[in-house]
Amino acid sequence: MQKCAIAIYGSPGSGKGTQANLIENKYGFIHFDTGKYIEQLVHDPSLQKNAIIKRERRNFDTGYLCTPSWVLKVVKSRAKQFAKAGFSVVFSGSPRTLYEAKGLIPLLEKLYGRKNTKFFSLEVPKDVAVKRNMIRERCSVCGAIIIDLGYRLRRCPICKGKLIRRTLDNKKALIKRFDEYNERTKPVFDFVKKRGYRIIKIDGCPVPEKVFKSVSKHL
């Protein structure tokens, strides 16, 4: 497989991070989880006196998208590093705004070529996505996302790390995140199409294995 860049879109809880992880593990990509990376930055204890970090943490924890210019600067820097090191990259939910798309997509074309730049959208009804968000937790050690289906797990089944709930996985923040996705991320699709790309729509409702089979057919 030639080196390429993939962007996977979907509403909160659609499974884009899970699919990006599977692509990373099977095909040797770097999964750059923009949301996870930003979450680590804004909650880094050593950065809490930084005025920009304090501002972005308020955005992140309340469900608002972080400042596009700041996010774009972070993502472009990492994308250049991945390409220079010879890695393919898969983004989960990024670029998240039209501003970011106008700055990042031309860079990806330059780094990987138009033919090697692909866009996916995981289609999941809102009620399913909301339910997934409300019962998921993250491992404080390995970062794995765990969907608790009633077993009341306290430890990660992978590494036994403590499970924690993300600050933005509460109902109030979740409603805002859906609004932000519809109002600020979906317009990216039109921009992508105008540049001549096809957004590959995938049913995100089945179990991850079946969704991954559908995604893999296009890689």
In short:
With 219 residues, this protein is α/β, with parallel strands linked by helices.
Question: Can you describe this structure?
Answer:
The chain is an alpha/beta fold and 219 residues long. The chain has a single domain (5-124, 180-216), classed as P-loop containing nucleotide triphosphate hydrolases (Rossmann fold, 3-Layer(aba) Sandwich), CATH 3.40.50. The chain has nine helices and eight strands. It has helices at residues 16-27, 34-42, 51-61, 68-84, 98-112, 126-134, 171-185, 187-194, 208-216, and strands at residues 5-9, 30-32, 89-92, 117-123, 136-139, 145-147, 163-164, 199-203. The strands form two sheets. Strands 2-3-1-4-8 form a five-stranded parallel beta sheet, with helices on both faces. The longest helix is centred in the middle third of the chain and has 17 residues, at 68-84. The termini are close together.
Distance between the termini: 8 Å
- Number of distinct helices: 9
Please identify the top-level CATH class: Alpha Beta
What portion of residues belong to β-strands?
A: 15-25%
Instruction: Characterize the biggest β-sheet.
Output: 5 strands, parallel
Main structural class: alpha/beta
Fraction of helical residues: 40-55%
